[in-house]
Specification:
3-stranded mixed beta sheet, 15% strand
Length: 425
């Protein structure tokens, strides 16, 4: 037997991949015939059937468990922690009230139930008190999400009637709504609208945990939320060619365009407008800042050409190209979000700030990676092209100005007294 093994090894040792290649050749020959192609298609159909069958079973199990009040994964909402329990013979978890956090939840709802209280009033109060939510400062989108969540309500018949009037599918009977338990709200089958804005056909289930907020206060807040304006989709940057690049020199949040009664354009800190927790950037006239940044770009390019005049162009790096494509996409998203702040309401301000912070984090990662791979930030051809644009800046289109800024500048932090530009070159 050992001798046969040695003979087989000797036969193929010159080309160890030969048996695998032969197998692939046999497969190609098999699928080249009409019968082979038919069998392959049949196998594909049955594989798709199996995949969809598994998917349906998982979905059915999810809805079966959710209708019985099981907690369906995810981090415990603020105000609760989880403890293991057994329900209907199945191991699961139950939400248990955290007394200290529950007190903050009740205060939050009581404050928002007042007609004149806004998101900014609540977030500013908790920021001043140094109270963190899951280790972070409370922001408006998080606050809005918490105020909508029926996990906190002491569900009674009023809550039952409210959700019934909204077209929500209520799993439990009205008699079960005794004012003791909280609720889980699940997205119903084949429901596309977000449950934040439309409760129709969503699924409400009584949960085994205790509620925190009295039903009358929770319903007052929920109805107040339903009257809030919807966030409009972002638009392309149009107000300044620095959009997406300019931030407050004090807090790092984006600056947005503000127009006064005479039509003059200013830049204001979005965090200052959000909850006044930043001192702001002072009075910055957009056109004056653009003029200063343009002058700095001219000086920077002149010094760059002096330093790199005798250097050879760097070879193209496909990794850098891929990173730059992703960076351009991130920059585009930031630009749209920043421009959408013009004339925005408080909800939109907070939403956009969070999204910009997330995108900016990814942007910094991409820039750091590009810096590691890049020998020269821009090529001699790009230097020549940029020089042409800067020499005729007044006649350059808005979009081309945006491209030049993107090639030269990473971020611009500004106040009325200072300007700090982070260059790419």
């Amino acid at each position: 037997m050992a001798q046969h093994a040695i003979l087989r090894f000797e036969k193929h040792k010159g080309n160890p991949a030969r048996p695998l290649e032969a197998h692939h050749e046999r497969q190609k020959e098999q699928y080249a015939t009409p019968m082979g192609r038919a069998m392959l298609n049949i196998c594909i159909v049955f594989a798709q059937l199996e995949r969809e069958t598994i998917q349906k079973r998982v979905t059915d199990a999810y809805y079966s468990h959710s209708q019985r009040g099981f907690k369906m994964g995810g981090k415990a909402p603020y105000g609760f922690h989880t403890e293991p329990i057994k329900m209907d013979g199945i191991n699961t978890k139950k939400l248990v009230v955290n007394p200290d956090e529950a007190a903050n939840i009740r205060l939050m709802f009581e404050m928002y139930a007042q007609p004149t209280t806004s998101y900014g009033d609540i977030t500013r109060y908790f920021a001043e008190q140094g109270i963190l939510f899951h280790g972070k400062e409370l922001i408006r989108p998080t606050l809005a999400q918490m105020l909508r969540n029926p996990v906190y309500v002491q569900a009674d018949l009023d809550v039952y009637e409210f959700f019934k009037s909204q077209g929500t599918v209520i799993v439990n009977d009205a008699a079960d709504f005794t004012g003791m338990n909280g609720c889980y709200l699940y997205q119903g089958r084949d429901v596309k609208p977000s449950k934040k804005n439309d409760l129709k056909d969503q699924m409400l289930v009584l949960a085994p945990h205790e509620g925190i907020v009295p039903s009358d206060i929770w319903l007052t807040c929920r109805k107040k939320l339903m009257n809030n304006m919807k966030i409009q989709s972002a638009r392309k940057a149009t107000h300044t060619w620095l959009a997406g690049k300019i931030k407050c020199g004090n807090c790092g949040y984006a600056l947005m365009s503000i127009f006064n009664s005479s039509g003059k354009q200013y830049l204001r800190c979005t965090k200052r407008l959000d909850n006044k927790s930043c001192a702001g950037c002072g009075k910055i006239i957009t056109s004056e800042l653009e003029a200063v940044v343009y002058q700095q770009m001219v000086k920077k390019l002149a010094s760059y050409k002096t330093l790199t005049g005798r250097k050879k162009a760097a070879k193209a790096n496909p990794k850098i190209a891929a990173l730059q494509v992703e960076l351009a996409h991130v920059d585009s998203e930031i630009e749209k979000l920043v421009d959408s702040l013009t004339g925005a309401n408080n909800v939109l301000l907070s939403y956009v700030n969070v999204k910009i912070a997330e995108l900016d984090g990814r942007k910094q990662e991409l820039l750091a990676r590009i810096a590691e791979l890049t020998v020269e930030a821009i090529s001699p051809e790009q230097v020549s092209q940029i020089s042409g644009y800067l020499d005729t800046w007044e006649n350059v289109s808005f979009d081309d100005k945006r491209r030049v800024v993107d090639l030269m500048i990473t971020t611009t932090a500004a106040t009325s007294d200072s300007l700090n530009i982070t260059w790419k070159i």
